[in-house]
Amino acid sequence: MLMEQAWEKFIATRDPSARHQLILHHLPLVKHLAGRVAVKLPAFIQKEDLEGYGVIGLMEALDKFDHSMGNNFDSYAYHRIRGAMLDEVRRQNWLPRTAWQKLQLYKNTRERLEGELGQAVSDERLAKEMGIKLDELHQLVFDANKMYLTSLDEEVSGNDGGLTRKLDLVEDINSPDPLSIVEEKENRRLLVEAVSMLGERDQLILSLYYSDGLTLKEIGQILEVSESRVCQLHSQAMKKLRRTVTEMLMS
């Protein structure tokens, strides 16, 4: 009943509170899809990242869904959410499709053989099982290692026991704080414009934190991620904002 009322209110007035209620109601669908998509992905693309992209897809689904067509929203949202996740995965994945397919074959073959034999498998056995030459296997592993190294996603434990990427702990001391820049130039319009240039997830996190005054823990509850993960996403958003404001001031 509550969802029916939220839908009616959202359809009639596009009420933000009703939209927020609908987003929260459909977050389990986002988590479910993120879990399914994450199974076939390398470690540097985290399930929590997929959930973030999925939330953006869910928001787009809510805003673009046409109720007059009589379609089921869950079915429509399923494809929009999954599409948003896969679009971001393709954007991050620099490997050609053929190399990616070979990498997946390598991963699946190794896991299968190790499961059957109960021990680590030699490169020679892997190459033979995959039907490729040994030097091709070595090149494939080399490409995969480069992909992980350039991701800079090695995680360390934070003060709250959560995991944080090392990259997010490095402060750029040569880059001025965007809020300080704006205050010095007395130009709040510039900050608003810079925020509007960020992605929807970054805007949401900054809005919840600075406009609505929510804590990182409360934001984590909304997005259904850990507090340390919200801290990481907030740090990333601020870095993007800092860079955008600096570029606008210098242009």
Automatic annotation (TrEMBL):
CDD domains: Sigma70_r4 (cd06171). Keywords: DNA-binding, Sigma factor, Transcription, Transcription regulation. Pfam families: Sigma70_r2 (PF04542), Sigma70_r3 (PF04539), Sigma70_r4 (PF04545). GO terms for biological process: DNA-templated transcription initiation. Residues 215-241 form the RNA polymerase sigma-70 domain. SUPFAM superfamilies: Sigma2 domain of RNA polymerase sigma factors, Sigma3 and sigma4 domains of RNA polymerase sigma factors. Gene3D superfamilies: 1.10.1740.10, 1.20.140.160. One of its GO terms (molecular function) is DNA-directed RNA polymerase activity. The keyword Repressor does not apply. NCBIfam families: FliA_WhiG, PRK06986.1, sigma70-ECF. This is RNA polymerase sigma factor, FliA/WhiG family.
